[in-house]
Write a structure and sequence with these properties.
The structure is a homodimer of 404-residue chains. By secondary structure, chain A is of the alpha/beta class. Chain A folds into two domains: 5-148 and 303-352, Rossmann fold (3-Layer(aba) Sandwich), CATH 3.40.50; 153-301 and 361-383, Phosphofructokinase domain (Rossmann fold). Chain A contains 14 helices and eleven strands. The first copy, chain A, has helices at residues 18-29, 44-49, 61-68, 84-96, 108-123, 150-170, 186-189, 214-228, 247-254, 270-283, 296-299, 306-325, 349-352, 373-379, and strands at residues 5-10, 37-41, 53-55, 101-106, 129-134, 174-179, 204-206, 231-236, 288-292, 330-338, 341-347. In chain A, the strands form two sheets. Chain A has a seven-stranded mixed sheet with strand order 3-2-1-4-5-10-11, with helices on both faces. Chain A has a four-stranded parallel sheet with strand order 7-8-6-9, sandwiched between helices. The longest helix of chain A is centred in the middle third of the chain and has 21 residues, at 150-170. Chain A is elongated, with a radius of gyration of 23 Å. The first copy, chain A, starts with a strand and ends in a 25-residue tail after the last helix. Chains A and B meet through strand 3, helix 3, helix 4, helix 6 and helix 10 of A and strand 3, helix 3, helix 4, helix 6 and helix 10 of B.
Chain lengths: 404, 404
């Protein structure tokens, strides 16, 4: 039987609700009499091999609740992607501390780390229960209806576009908003939920699931601008041409912009700025503005989905229950059971690790620049309660007197 | 006596609460029996000279309340800055429609427009009451304790930095957030209100009220990074060297980046990206990220100060009362009367028009890279109720076993 010591860690990019999962583990574990200690590793797997642990057993439940409602990884995170050798170091530390249960909250890479550690423990005949707890704003874990962290980031993106659309309606022009998500377009697609009236933006949505053709993009912007006198565009940072080359790289080259080869093309405002320059120079539109949502979309404090909070807490709780009562290592997954309710299951680690989900075809409109109602129905309940709403003055024109 | 027709318009950049002022005018005017019509001009002064009016008299009070809670200018806005000739066109339209009261909601430029129109009406002996209603996220109107719109934008900036700081603590590195405000640093300084624990960011704040010296900036970042292992920086888009040259222009030149002279240096991500490149190349720090808050900070839906909402409503109401019961044209101003309460007065248009307030010296720390407690006391009540808060796990280290 596994020992009474738990280790929990957080990996990859922070989210608005990842601490709910941490606290779900810590509080649920207190229900089990044989659990003597709950350790948290600082900065993910890096903190494990450094033996840099916090004793969460000594936390008050009140402070844990406050931390649960705080965005970003309270234990710290890491970008380390462990290979077999790195995982042997992890395993060595788990053995030395007599850890019986290992919980790792993270995305694809984290699930792969759990998979390797699980294998090594089995090979060494060491009694370890290893559970991966899902987390990613990209929503790109297979086998999950959606992943904790995504709904809150999606809510931020929807609210940001709702506001940007109102701003753009007041001072018409072209607005480009660049959204995170290198391979999966879910977060960019969430911009569509910021739309209320038929002529609202985003009018065009560009996803990494579809090939981006610059000439077609310019034609789309031109016709939208001619129709509405303005154009709001949501763009995934991962857009690429047919060969897979990032659009930022193509545009930078075209502009002979990158003479020293030292201009970083991701994690900054380059893509938005380059697309804006392209629209200005080719379409001769004057007022063109671009924003890159950057870190705001994953860590903004005070824009969170209550549904996401609850589910992130539950995946942590369920992870402990699966560990204590089950016979298998695995990855906790969210299943949708109604409109709207969910349940949780434990998937084999092999089924999740190292795989990437992208947006299903049924979620993308045939035009390639919009989402479908199926996607709207999929996303809406995840955004939670209290979504802000936008209203307009009704149409009551006044007759001209000077007859200009 | 002025006629029973009111015209109201909205100018300049939208804010989260500018529609509160519009609705304050529209609803308060309904109390006065001799007011027969309330017109709203579409797209500010541009809509006046185009005679493009909406009849707000026909709006329901319910829809007006919904619009009041919607960010961005419901009537539309304009960047037009009227000169004497333009104002004569405005005046011609006001006469033709027999407008007796003119309310213009906006910043510096808008108050100057009201001043000129007021003069022209007086010169023509036309009975017109002209009132400027303050609005600007820059907080740069003289004679006001603060301006409607600023508190909500400040709240967004404070929340954004609170989240960015948590993200940066989880994955340490350097983070640069560029904030709006070309001449006045109030909005950038609001980042300081996102700080809670002594080692929280923003660790450095750069304001347009102080000369920006690149070498000193790099030294500041270096020492902060050495002390905390990370560094969160708030930068105003308006930072400049001793000669007034924008820093983005200086850095772009240094990098020979701008070969074609066609790279726009404002209204995009250039400043953040250039500062990040500078830190990476000179300080050899690997993880350096920059965000430009752009339009999100002035139009994000769902991040608003209730104090700001209430005051924006009141300046609209008071404008109508000053117009109906007073004998003078003027600009409505907010006066602080307690901690925290306000009252409103009508300033002469000459006292406000075309003048720019910048941050008072008492609000800026001697280091030039932080704010004072006087500023914190000034800003805190404006942010309103329900500010989200951040909490940490307490320090309970676990002894190492492997003694690495």
């Amino acid at each position: 039987m596994a020992s009474g010591k738990i280790l929990v860690a957080q990996g990859g990019g922070p989210t608005a609700v990842i601490n709910q999962s941490l606290v779900g583990v810590a509080l649920e574990a207190r229900r089990f009499a044989h659990i003597g200690h709950i350790y948290g590793a600082h900065h993910g797997v890096r903190g494990i091999i450094d033996e840099d642990f916090a004793d969460l057993t000594q936390e008050t439940s009140h402070n844990l609740e406050l931390v649960a409602n705080t965005p970003s990884s309270a234990l710290g995170s890491t970008r380390d992607k462990p290979d077999e050798a790195y995982c042997r170091e992890i395993f060595k530390v788990l053995q030395a501390h007599k850890i019986g249960h290992f919980f790792y909250i993270g995305g694809n890479d984290s699930s792969d780390t759990v998979r390797i550690v699980s294998q090594q423990a089995r090979a060494a005949n060491y009694p370890l229960r290893s559970i991966h707890i899902p987390k990613t704003i990209d929503n790109d874990l297979v086998g999950n209806d959606h992943t904790p962290g995504f709904p809150s980031a999606a809510r931020f993106v929807a609210q940001a576009f709702a506001g940007a659309n109102l701003d753009n309606a007041a001072l018409p022009g072209v607005y480009v908003g660049v959204v995170m998500g290198r391979h999966a377009g879910f977060l960019t697609a969430a911009s569509a939920l910021g739309k209320k009236f038929p002529d609202d933006g985003p009018h065009l949505i560009y996803l990494p699931e579809r090939t981006f053709v610059i000439a077609q993009f310019l034609a789309d912007v031109k016709s939208t601008y001619e129709r509405y006198g303005r154009c709001v565009i949501a763009v995934s940072e991962g857009i690429h041409d047919a060969s897979g080359t990032p659009i930022a790289a193509l545009l930078a080259k075209e502009m002979e912009h990158d003479a020293h080869g030292n201009v970083q093309l991701s994690g900054n405002g380059a893509l938005a700025d380059l697309l804006c320059e392209e629209i200005k120079s080719k379409l001769k539109i004057k007022r063109v503005r671009g924003d890159t949502f950057g870190y705001l979309q994953r860590s903004f404090i005070g824009c969170v989905s209550d549904v996401d909070q609850r589910e992130a807490r539950e995946v942590g709780e369920k992870a402990v229950q699966f560990a204590m009562w089950g016979q298998h290592d695995g990855s906790v997954a969210i299943k949708r059971t109604g409109f709207y309710s969910v349940d949780y299951e434990l998937l084999p680690l092999d089924a999740v690790a190292g795989k990437t989900r992208v947006m299903e075809d049924e979620f993308i409109a045939p035009s390639g620049t919009d989402v479908t109602d199926a996607f709207r129905m999929y996303l809406r309940p995840l955004l939670g309660s209290g979504m802000p709403d936008a209203f307009r003055l009704r149409h009551h024109p006044v007759d001209r007197v000077l007859n200009k």
